[in-house]
Specification:
single chain, about 130 residues, alpha/beta, Rossmann fold, five-stranded parallel beta sheet, 7 helices, 5 strands, globular
Length: about 130
Amino acid sequence: MNIALMAHDRKKELMVQFCIAYCGILAGHSICATNTTGRLVAEATGLPITLYLPASQGGAQQIGARITYNELDLVLFFCDPAFTEGHASVNEIARLCDQYNVPFASNVATAEVLIQGLKRGDLAWRDIVNPKN
């Protein structure tokens, strides 16, 4: 599975801690992330992560394009509800995930449910509905 990671500044440490906790599960998948989030997670976990631009400089659009081209199977975007300027990118990513049936978590509680489902194989339907060549 191809997984994208994004996090607002005040949620980056939470993303790092989440990825440390679930490193064993994440290691079996391809991960991409916006620049700072991905760099922090890679440094903390040793996971190989494809880095995109920072979200504010086009990284959110790069991830959005991967959703549109059916290249992502799961998006974890830890949002800071107090960061009102960042809601446009969250809304756009969430809208694309809804449009293309990509599981999306905007908080750690939902991310934990999705990552446990990933571990159990609950997301294998992505390979059936959207086979990769």
